[in-house]
Write a structure and sequence with these properties.
The protein is mainly alpha-helical and about 130 residues long. It has one domain. About 75% of the residues lie in helices and about 0% in strands. The chain contains six helices and no strands. α3 packs across α4 and α3 runs parallel beside α6.
Length: about 130
């Protein structure tokens, strides 16, 4: 939470007020919000452009976003799949990590279903 306060220049009390569950709640809320935002974006582009073009545009958007921000932005859903959750006391917390991975799995399945439902997909270059 200290890093959030430092980076956002938000008073610590405000962060604690909005995230009384601490770091775990902040990460979970960020994951759920990101899942919904990406779902909306992905649904819009695959509905409008079809699976292949829409997904390619979505990938291009992320390539552009990452490169323009020197790879300092990203997706909290992906982050929890590649890093172990460490509790505020500095120890790994497997039950919390498992909860985060369940959220990630749900997000990935939802996104895959959106692309599948749009049809017309084939190999997409990255």
């Amino acid at each position: 939470m200290r890093e959030v306060v430092k980076y956002s220049q938000t008073p610590r009390g405000s962060v604690q007020h909005h995230f009384p569950g601490g770091k775990q709640q902040l990460i979970e809320d960020a994951m759920l919000a990101s899942k919904d935002i990406v779902s909306q974006m992905l649904s819009a582009v695959v509905t409008e452009q079809g699976a292949k073009s829409g997904l390619q545009g979505f990938i291009d958007y992320w390539i552009h976003t990452l490169s323009q921000n020197e790879f300092e932005v990203g997706c909290p859903i992906l982050a929890v799949t590649v890093e172990q959750y460490i509790s505020e006391d500095g120890t790994p917390n497997t039950p919390v990590q498992d909860r985060f991975l369940d959220i990630a799995k749900t997000a990935f399945e939802e996104w895959q279903a959106q692309v599948d439902d749009a049809g017309d997909y084939e190999l997409i270059k990255v």
